Amino acid sequence: MSSKFAAYPEEADSIINEREPCGIRLTTRIKPQANLRSSAKMKEQKSSANFLTVGEVSRRSGVAVSALHFYESKNLISSIRTQGNQRRYARDMLRRIALIKAAQSLGISLADITAILAAFPLTDKISAKDIDQMVRKWSVMLDGRIAGLTKLRNHLDKCIGCGCLSRTDCPLVNPSDCLSKKGRGAVILS
What we know:
With about 190 residues, the chain is of the alpha+beta class. It is built from 6 helices and 6 strands; from the N terminus they run βββαβααββααα.
């Protein structure tokens, strides 16, 4: 078996392998590979500069790895997988995670956060305009909660310690004694 370089200029970039098993001459033309594994790794490293590992995202966001996996299972954030099946997060996910943490610190439930973030595809960057839109929605939700808590605070002295089971005087649970139409006694408890 012998191998040699081609004699013609157009074939200079290929290698010819000649084999003669059982007296039959076989010629195979082999082209050199332009993308060897080392260069493919270099390309992967260059493109991976825009992506972060789960550990890097955890450190930068202050969120546990398990919480990141949970957020991903709820479609709040997304990742891609490497050939080795490792998660890689786009840098844009840090903004989404910051928004999730901020909303949770305001007492907004994960279900409400999910509903609001559903309007913004995971593949798109969240802009300042998008954030303003989210903040307006969250403000309306928080205003409703504040109004409810203020009402509770203002009527709290009438509810605590009264001992009544019918709650006829309770402005929070039974305004205008509307429960009296449902029966006598503790109709809420039965």
